[in-house]
Design brief:
Elements (H helix, E strand, L loop, with lengths): L9 E3 L5 E3 L3 H5 L2 H6 L30 H18 L10 H10 L10 H10 L10
Antiparallel strand pairs: 1-2
Organism: Strombidium inclinatum
Pfam families: Pkinase (PF00069)
Protein name: Protein kinase domain-containing protein
Amino acid sequence: VHRDIKPENIVLNHNKQAILIDFGISALMHDEEYEKSLNTVGTYIYYSPEMCVKRKNSSGKAVLSDGAKNDLWALGISFFRILSGRYPYEATESVEELKKFILFSPIDFGLIKNESARDLLKKMLCKDLELRAQ
């Protein structure tokens, strides 16, 4: 699990293959530490819907979200930005407003011209965690 996927952390090697860099956040933290630090690390625009909602179990302990599916969402947001030149959500100064966009606003996949890429992004950016690509 990477935990900070964004275009700035994707580079091309000499064979033009995409490589993820900057594993600093994931290498230093365990899942519980990471969940506690969500207000200070990572990049909010790449947060998955489930990261925008704090869930607790019956004993009041935070329920951890699936790190791999969070990474898949962030990769989808990154691809969307690379392919369309913009983010799928409105720019906002407020983290709470951004979370509302992520949770409730539809994504305009029409901005992605390539049909195969658009179909892949629809699977990667499915707001329903159970239906999201794996």
